[in-house]
Design goal:
The complex is a heterodimer of chains A (364) and B (286). Chain A is built from 8 helices and 14 strands. With 364 residues, chain A is α+β, with helices and mostly antiparallel strands. Chain A has an 8-stranded antiparallel β-sheet, with helices on one face. In chain A, 26% of the residues are buried. Classes of the chains: A alpha+beta (364), B alpha+beta (286).
Chain lengths: 364, 286
Amino acid sequence: MTITTGAVLPTHRTPVALARGFLTGGVVGTSLAALVVGGIVENVPLFVTGLVLPVVYGLLFFLAGMPRRAREAAVVPRTALAMIESLEAVGGESSDVPVRFELTVAPDDGSAYRVEFRQDINLVDLSDYRPRGVVVVQYPPDRPWRVRIVKRPTPEWEERAASARLDSAPGTARVAAPPEGCAFGFVVLLGLLLGAAAVVLLFRVDLFDRDDTAQPPPVARPSVSSTSSTTVVSSASGTVSLGPGQSFLDKGELDRAVGSLTRGGDTHQALTVVVQERLLSVVFSPTGTQPPGLDPRTLPYDRFPALVEEATATLGVRSPRTWQIIADRLTGSLVIRVVVTGPEGAASLEANGQGKVVRRAPAR
Amino acid sequence: MGWHGYLVLWCGVFGTLALVGYGRSLAGMTPAQRAVRVTGRIERVGEPRHGSSPREGIAVVVSFQDPSSGQEFTVTNDGERGERISAAWTGREIGVHYPRGRPHAFRFTSDLSEGGRGLGWPTFAVFLVYAGPVVVAAIDWGWPWALLGFCGPWALSGLYHLPGNVRDRNRRLDTLAAMAAVPGRVVAVLKSVSTDDDGYTSTHLVPVVTFTTLDGRAVTAYCESGLPDPAGSQGLDVTIHYACDDPAVFVLDVEAERRSWKRDMAVNVVGVLVVAAAAVVGVVAL
């Protein structure tokens, strides 16, 4: 005798399930690749996408599964008597050990069937479960393989179990969950690989450029350090110019450039530091003098993008063409001056050593 | 998109979620509002087995009636059934709630009053909307904004609730003073052993006491504090002090409990002062 479960579709073989598996794999692959590639090329939006994408997908997945979960929760579980054919503790170091049961379930209104499942049983209660013993079980009628032993049955079922004698169902009357199949695993893997490959291909230029710019530029003599930035250092001054498509307002770019100018020697004091879109110039203080210099490494570079943004947005230069930041201590205290120029003229603002704006001069 | 773009996105998403949640609550559509709440009655109390697990609570048989169909249900607390029942006696009333039309999905609760309005998640979303600008302000303008932004409202909330908390402590102290004393016995010690990923094993022991109230109710209850040596306490005779109107509220050592409540009140006040001081430091450091 074989129990048929015709109403139940093998959940992992339907086209929708396969498409969902492919999508899940794609999202996992894309987000992982976005995190790794975003971290390597220091692309913040890509990195954030890697974080946000799985969260959004998980939320959508959760919402899409709500009707199915509601449908399953609305099914009234069926209670039945069952006889233990065999049981085996399969490990566990806590007080609740996982036990693999094989039961013959005898529903009141149907044929008896065999089923195998695992359930955690407390060590102290394990002696209550012996082969040929009768227990009370519950299962959803549409998924008879999802059997659970009721450890605390109601008095009525407790009495029935105490007085019942059940016969074993034949081994052919076995019910089990539909197998997952290898097609599902294959489409998940395929989605994962395609998602990761798509991100790597989209950002391959940045990844390869990164290999070139990562080389440390020599400090002692003027030289071309990479295809996208040029560093020139002498005892009196140093400049770093960036290639097309780059900006000193990009995160970490200024720190890296200043680091390349001041690396290898004593602490260089500078008279002025000038930053433009793709050009950084530092004029070093002459050796042996004590002018009011500044240490170019201590400037608040992380505030520079915000200062430029503020200058271009609030000082009346509606379509700025160029900007320039000049830092010096010629008047005693450190002054960071941001100048933006556009059709309306020039406007500037001044900030202190912490990057806080202290004065504004709008365009006239 | 800069920091401020992400902030707008953050506030927009969680603000929308909060609005949806409050809208559902106003329309009476939250699961908490739609749940059926009935009062069940404990018909039978099981004898706890020494050494078994305390996770599922004291075994009870409960009966309740579904108001819509009038059908009587007799159920047990097997598996995940809401709040753990840690004090039981025959005849005790216990809250039962379930989604409308699904009495088989019942859950127990010790709270017999009407359910909440389901505003927990929307309020949490509002908190996240508030936390976003505070964090960005702290990053842009300095740490004092974090102190002011978080500790300020917290201190105000603490000050607002302080009188109620003090009244609650005083009421509990009054309850302690009016407790009745009866003999009891530790009938079993339940044990839960768990092992974490590092292989560290932790054991949680819960003694179970039984006592009979002056009006004849035979109470079985978990006693998680008050016994100096829980592991060896099986068979120990103890004196139980219980609240006459609710035997689920009981203690073994009234004086220790009183000291604990007084200490708790002091900690509450000091906590509010510390949070308020942090907010003031934030204002001064701006």
